[in-house]
Amino acid sequence: MQRNGIKMKEGEKDLLSLNDDRGVVFNIQRFSIHDGPGIRSTVFLKGCALNCPWCQNPESIRLLPEIITRDIKCIKSGKCADICPQGAISLAEGLRVIDWEKCDYCLKCAEVCPSKSIEVAGEHKSVDEVIEEVEKDSSYYRRTGGGMTISGGDPLVQWRFTLALLQKARQKGIHTALDTTGYARWEVLDDILNYTNLVLYDIKHMDSAKHKEATGVPNEPILDNLLKTVKKPEVKVWIRYPIIPGFNDQEEELEKLCEFVITLGPTVEKISLLPFHKFGELKYTATGKVYAYRDCTPLSDERVEELKGLISSHGLHTEIGK
Amino acid sequence: MERPVTKDPREMKSADELLDATCEQTDFYIKIAALSHNIGHQTVMDYNADPLNSLMLDDTLENGNDIYKYNKEFDSYLNVISLGHVNIADSLAAIQKLVFDEKKYTMDELLRALKSNWDGYEEMRQDFVNAPKHGNDDDYADEWAVKVKKKFWETAQKTKDAWGNPCTFDGSSVIAYQAMAFGIGATPDGRMMSDYIADGSCSPSAGADKKGPTAVLNSVGKVPFLYTGLFNQRFMPSFLEGENKKLFSEYLREWFEKMTIPHIQFNVVSSETLREAQKDPESHPDLQVRIAGYSAHFVDLPKETQDSIICRTEHSF
Ligand code: SF4
Ligand code: SF4
Predict the structure, then answer these.
(1) Which residues of A touch B (CB under 8 A)?
(2) Single pTM value for the model
């Protein structure tokens, strides 16, 4: 499978669940203030079953570790070119250039790079290692109603690991949030929600064909799972709707979204609109991927406010996410 | 007084030995400072009574004491402004790791690299730059910060003022981290000659803290409050907007209740800083941008995106 230049290894999809005590984590961001209430730590897991061309974390889609580069840090040592078994790295005026077609993610270049100009995105970590890092900010969670958010990628890809993290956090009394596409077998999500206080649930398009065209998967399983999720009174839901110009920013689309959300009931606390931005752009080049939204202009603040107004007019609580 | 001869670093077995030697040398200089200060103080006491200022104190009149003879509520008349302790801690952490634990470099190589201001040793410097640093809630580096602070404090206390009170340190060095830096050669934390040293005497070195404000606060909070210090922290303006104000006040409470940092100073990243970073990315490699489900270094963003963040920053004030 190859979209946006994201290469999956043979059989990678079968590794999906890995195991329950080690997962591939690409970042633990402490002091997150936009992924749920309070001061939180967001655990970013690798792997996503969807493949949205506007993704802001392109290094998160592939399940296994990969390399990510930062040109300004290169000190032109040439060590990476010397070690690469695929001959994928050459030196042009000292700066290394990677032929991404040849790279097979053996990660050797990142190991020898002295200046972290090539780094590994995605590290195998145990549940205890992650929780230990998360617990370091427990006092801030208690003060601010914060906690741990698991994000990605989509945490439902490494679902066994996600489940184990949530269980452990629960045991420790840490508030838990799950930032997800909702794309999984219901049994999997069902189990996970038993240990989740809040779901940040993505809806990208109400039309399944359009959804599939853009993300690679149909939306029925996602919407079905959401209908079941809202039946759990103890799980709060925030809908996240990324507004992508030309894809889902038309008024009719937002009307359809509202019609659907209105039927969901009181566990849905709000709709967060996430306006399209291009902050992820350089991460595409940094990881050898193609950014299809390079020429897309983000919506104006006024337009975003207008769309927000449209949702509010249906009596739904909404905010513009950051 | 003669300058003590301490062991050749090449013969040392641990970074602790190096710290001890550093303190021994520091002790010598504190004693010189104390000597001149105490002579000065004695002279002022004898020849330069200050009745006006003496009236400002509580019981000078009753006891017939001049302000310069006043020896009550002060800890000490001898106050040494201290600077660069965080650089020392980071240096020792790097040396312990790379020279003593992993034995990747010898002390001899390190000395040569430092003498040449890392010139010709860039790869090696990267290892020292990337060694554990104070400010990331990482015990390896934070324990060195604790040790350095305690040891230097003990060292200061060995010297006495004219009244016999032990000497104290004062960490409120304000802007001196820039001025004094010019006289300081390359250091084993990866710093080059004349680069600024860590500001504020207990703030992490600029750019060394990579895990956000809570990690910085936790790190700094591990170091005991033995003498005054100044802690500078930088936030993106979004942390102080709207709903987030509540989070900020809770963050302050946490600092206030749990931590022992006497003086904290918040700077909000300004659009000027961002413009500077845009022009000179190398000096701001670690400026963080935080948005939902995403984080990146400011300098990694495309120009047009940087511009939009600058614009936002301007609008929030
Ligand atoms: S090893 Fe790192 S510093 Fe050396 S040339 Fe490769 S990317 Fe640049
Ligand atoms: S990760 Fe890719 S570029 Fe790096 S050494 Fe391996 S094959 Fe070469």
Answers:
(1) 27, 29-35, 38-39, 42, 56-57, 70, 72-73, 75, 77, 114-116, 136-137, 139-140, 143-144, 151, 179, 240, 272, 274, 277-283, 286, 298, 321-322
(2) 0.86
- Mean pLDDT across chain B: 84
Contact B145, B219 (CB under 8 A): yes
- Residues of B in Cβ contact (< 8 Å) with A321: 292
Atom of ligand 2 nearest to the CA of A107: 1
Q: Which atom of ligand 2 is nearest to the CA of A105?
A: 1
Q: What is the DSSP string of A185-208?
A: -HHHHHHHHTT-SEEEEE---S-H
Closest-CA residue to B93 (of B177, B204, B173, B230): B204
- Ligand 2 atom 2: residue of nearest CA: A103
Asked whether B34 and B167 are in contact (CB, 8 A), the reply is yes
pLDDT at site B125: 96
- Cα angle: A312, vertex A313, A314; to 5 degrees: 85
**Which residue stretches of chain A have pLDDT < 50?**
1-5, 10, 14, 16-17
CATH class of B9-315: alpha beta
The pick from A62, A106, A112, A120 for probing ligand 2's pocket by mutation, whose C-beta has the most ligand atoms within 8 angstroms, reads A106
Across B13-22, B164-173, B286-295, the highest mean pLDDT is recorded for: B13-22
Burial A149-158 (b: 16+ CB within 10 A, else e): bbbbbbbbbb
The predicted complex's ipTM stands at 0.82
**CA dihedral of residues A253, A259, A260, A264 (deg, nearest 10):** 150
Distance CA B295, CA B306 (A): 14
Give the Cβ contact number of residue B225 at 10 Å.
14
What does the block give as tokens for A183?
């794309």
**pLDDT over threshold 90, residue B66:** no
C-beta A71 within 6 A of ligand 1 = no
**Ligand 1, from A69, A83, A115: best to mutate by most atoms within 8 Å of Cβ?**
A115
Tokens of B123: 């790869």
Choose from B254, B258, B294, B295 for mutation: most chain A CBs within 10 A: B294
Return the structure tokens found at A67.
């390399």
B251-295 tens-digit pLDDT: 888 887 766 666 777 777 777 778 888 887 777 766 766 555 555
- Domains of chain A (ranges; CATH) run 2-63+122-320 (3.20.20.70), 66-121 (3.30.70.20)
One-letter amino acid at A31 equals F
Q: How far apart are the first and last CA of chain B?
A: 57
Q: Look up residue A10 and give its two tokens.
A: 């043979």
- Spatial separation of the C-alpha atoms in residues B108 and B27, rounded to whole Å: 25
Burial A301-313 (b: 16+ CB within 10 A, else e): eeebeebbebbee
